[in-house]
Fold:
Amino acid sequence: MDLQEAKSQSQQQKEKLIFWFLLFLLPLSILLSFWTGPSLTWKDWSLWIQGYNSPRVETILFSLRLPRILFGVLVGASLAASGAALQGILQNPLAEPYTLGISGGGLFGVSLGIIAIAYHFASPQIMPFFGFGGSLLASLLVYLLAIKSGFQIYRLILGGVIISFIFSSLVIIILFLLPPEVSQVSLLMLIGDLSGNQVSLLWLASPIILIFLFYLFHLSSEINLLSLGEEKALSLGVSPKRLSFIVFWITSLLTGTAVSIAGLIGFIGLMVPHLFRLLGIADFKRLLPYSALGGAILLVLFDTLSRRIFFPLELPVGILSSLLGGLVLLYLLLFNSQKLVN
Structure:
């Protein structure tokens, strides 16, 4: 066995270990979040475990906490996998729905949906489609910008920031036009929050997110070929333009659905794929599903921490993710800038 084969086997073993660790960590993070909260005492837990039915306990656990946790899993998986896929097709480690303005477009669509619902023009159940429409509009702008800029990293990110600012400004204008009781919902969306969602939205969002996540995983081989370069991908039968269009469409749908649930959750799509690349995982057949699992775990843990860090106050999870993600982005720009340019 030569050195190259030994390294390959070692990397495969490490990837398997990471996968099993993620599968262990996901239910652990869910249980931790499920058990964390100020509303229940140890006596409540003890009686519930012993089989004493309590409407109060069951309402808190199964009508409030469990849907919130499942929303966190879906949103985290969507954003992280979308970030990894966008980084692959754009060859840009700073690309993700938040930095490209796709999340901002989704929030604009959701804000229009809130207006439509407030004035009884639409049902709350179609909110994900408003988010998808806004995200798709932002994605088209980013795609055109990418072509115009020649896919230059810093121009693309700067353009994404500008797109995000434009959509955020439009959302703030909508906030001023809405009645106070309705604008509060948009304000939480602007910050990023997992509380207050209807359980009915879970049944609508879950199949959309799961189906298109697996479709994104199905494209991993083509994204791998594109990472070798456009000419190489074309010679192997992959159309870069077609693949980019499909990935932008899927990530718009995933991001729009995620934003309709939680609002602006920043940098999950940046932090998680970057972490796995640091661990040596570059193959998108591994990177995409690992990012989805890692994003789900990270957002559930962030939400758990946000409920406890300033107890009894509850910090919106979007603030925590933006703070930590901003630090990661700053690190990449300060210490990996030459690598990013290359």
Observations:
- Residues 76-341 form a domain with the ABC transporter involved in vitamin B12 uptake, BtuC fold (CATH 1.10.3470.10).
